[in-house]
Amino acid sequence: MPDEYDLPSDADPVVCDHCGAPFAEAELLALHRGIDHADALDASERDAFEDAYESEEERLRLFRLKALGALVFLYFGLLITYSVFA
Ligand SMILES: [Zn+2]
Question: Where would I find the C2H2-type domain in this sequence (predicted)?
Answer without folding.
Answer: 16-37
